[in-house]
Design brief:
The complex is a heterodimer of chains A (302) and B (226). With 302 residues, chain A is mainly α. Chain A contains twelve helices and no strands. Chain A has a domain of 210 residues: MetI-like fold, CATH 1.10.3720.10. The radius of gyration of chain A is 24 Å and the shape is flat. By secondary structure, chain B is mostly helical. Chain B contains nine helices and no strands. Classes of the chains: A mainly alpha (302), B mainly alpha (226). Chain B: InterPro entries: AA_ABC_transptr_permease_3TM, ArtM/GltK/GlnP/TcyL/YhdX-like, MetI-like, MetI-like_sf.
């Protein structure tokens, strides 16, 4: 697309582009330089601040935090998928008495900030006598939020399928259950795979919220290590190390989503929905809706 | 009771400041980065891509952690917590805004740009007269979704000593003075944390549904004209 926006640059445009490129490089270099200078000036490169990462015990702590992050993520991811399917099927139901309440549940679960949900579980429930561990609070909040978003994604996937699929299913004598289970859902899941995986990235990112309700995940460990006075409070080194682990994990999962999307584009089996670029869940689903609308109008224009 | 009212007022103010100031930073930065990502300058495109991919794959909590704890150390001075949280929110949300703008530009049919090019318009004219006005319409609904996400994300600042709706419960329990006589008082004074948190959740649900309604109205308004 972007290639259509402008000509092959001529001499003047090339010069201008080169100047803009140099300016960009200068700005980026200035920012990096500033950061490195401040890191250096505040003594973040001293051996004392990094010595903490020379101990096996410390790395075991980090691994422990990483394990807490991953275990919350895995349980929450699986739970969110299950809840997503249940809610999606509920929203697609023919019976208004199921569809409408489930619709409201999805809307409300999506609207509550995940952190507030975690706090509700962790700080709120003890007032009525239910003790909840931070782990349970994190996992349940993540399942509730991501499950409702996944439900919307799956529903959008089902509704975007051509009507003929459903009709053909009924025509060969399948019942409602069979049509949904054997025909609609597999195609919808295939079409929505990138959205589903990028929603899992969101779940992984949101496990970091557990830090605020004292769940001992990676960020919590980082903060703890960063305040060890005998190592000179290496908060910045700890944040750099832990942050890199987080970003690496999420990038890895995002890369999987990207590969899946790319493979789907080539696969003739998958319906071509082009679900945007994943990322923010609400944006992705909205975008699909928008695209569907636009697609119709495009046809008229052409 | 006076103190409680004051705390609630400050909390709402905190959330609004985070939302609006963070939103303005995100829109400005996101627009610049989004423009970089469709620009003819390869280096600008690369920088934009790296920025978007990195920040989007970083948990907001980590971004805020960095701003709240590391920036004061690096700059060697104390900085207002709400300011740092606002910048963190802006920097984080800007990536989503940039992506929304980019995919909005991409939804405009290629023929439009080709026709504009055929008329002899330059890059600036193609963008400002043909692409952006059309992209704007398809961008509004996803942009509202980003803003809704931003509103919900303001609560994360609660973990970094910013008084807002996410952290008001903790502040209330510190300042608890009056004992509650009825259930409503127990709710607003933070005497009953479950009720207080439920109230906050309801406030957010109402605000989010309000924004979602606005989104639908805008979507309908601009869809007809196309």
């Amino acid at each position: 697309m972007s290639s259509v926006l402008y000509d092959v640059p001529g001499p003047r445009a090339r010069l201008r582009n080169r100047v803009l490129g140099v300016v960009t490089i200068l700005v980026v270099l200035a920012l990096i330089g500033l950061t490195v200078w401040r890191l250096y000036a505040t003594g973040q490169f001293t051996a004392q601040k990094w010595s903490i990462f020379g101990y096996t015990a410390i790395w075991m702590r980090i691994l422990d935090g990483l394990w807490h992050t991953l275990s919350a993520f895995i349980v929450a991811g699986v739970g969110a998928l299950i809840l997503g399917f249940i809610l999606a099927v509920g929203r697609l139901s023919d019976h208004a008495w199921i569809r409408v309440p489930v619709g409201w549940i999805v809307e409300i679960l999506r609207a509550i900030p995940v952190l507030i949900f975690m706090m509700l579980m962790y700080y709120g429930l003890p007032t009525v006598g239910i003790k909840v561990t931070p782990y349970v609070a994190v996992v349940v909040a993540l399942i509730a939020y991501n499950g409702s978003v996944l439900a919307e994604a799956i529903r959008a996937g089902v509704e975007s399928l051509p009507r003929g699929q459903k009709e053909a299913g009924y025509a060969i004598g399948l019942r409602k259950n069979g049509v949904l289970r054997l025909i609609l859902l597999p195609q919808a899941v295939r079409a929505m795979m990138p959205v589903i995986i990028s929603q899992l990235v969101v779940a992984l990112k949101d496990t970091a919220l557990g830090f605020i309700i004292t769940y001992p995940e990676l960020l919590y460990v980082i903060k703890l290590l960063g305040t060890q006075i005998q190592y000179g409070s290496p908060l910045v080194p700890a944040a750099i190390v832990g942050g890199s682990i987080y970003v690496a994990l999420c990038l890895l999962l995002s890369y999987v989503a990207y590969r899946v999307e790319k493979r789907m584009r080539r696969s003739p089996k998958a319906p071509h929905l082009d679900p945007g670029d994943g990322g923010d869940p609400t944006t992705a689903t909205e975008r699909i809706a928008v695209r569907r609308g636009l697609g119709k109008f495009d046809g008229r224009q052409a | 009771m006076d103190e409680v009212g004051h705390l609630w007022w400050q909390a709402i103010e905190g959330t609004l400041v985070l939302f609006f100031a963070g939103g303005v930073i995100a829109l400005v930065l996101g627009f610049i980065v989004g423009a970089m990502r469709v620009s003819p300058v390869p280096i600008a495109r690369a920088v934009g891509t790296v920025y978007v991919n990195w920040i989007r794959n970083t948990p907001l909590t980590l971004v805020m952690f960095f701003f709240a704890f590391c920036i004061p150390i690096l700059l060697g001075q104390r900085i207002n917590a709400i300011m740092l949280a606002t910048i963190a929110l802006g920097v984080y949300t800007a990536t989503y805004i940039a992506e929304t703008i980019r995919s909005g530009v991409n939804t405009v049919p290629v023929g439009q740009a080709e026709a504009a090019r055929a008329l002899g318009l330059g890059f600036g004219q193609v963008m400002s007269l043909v692409i952006l006005p059309q992209a704007f319409r398809s961008v509004v609904p996803p942009m509202m979704s980003v803003l809704i996400a931003l509103l919900k994300n303001t609560t994360v600042a609660a973990g970094f000593s910013v008084l807002n709706l996410g952290s008001v419960t903790a502040y209330l329990s510190e300042h608890r003075t009056a004992s509650a006589d009825n259930i409503f008082q127990a709710m607003v004074t933070g005497e009953n944390q479950l009720l207080t948190l439920l109230l906050i959740a309801v406030i957010f649900v109402v605000l989010v549904l309000l924004l979602a309604w606005l989104q639908r109205v805008l979507e309908r308004k601009w869809k007809v004209e196309r």
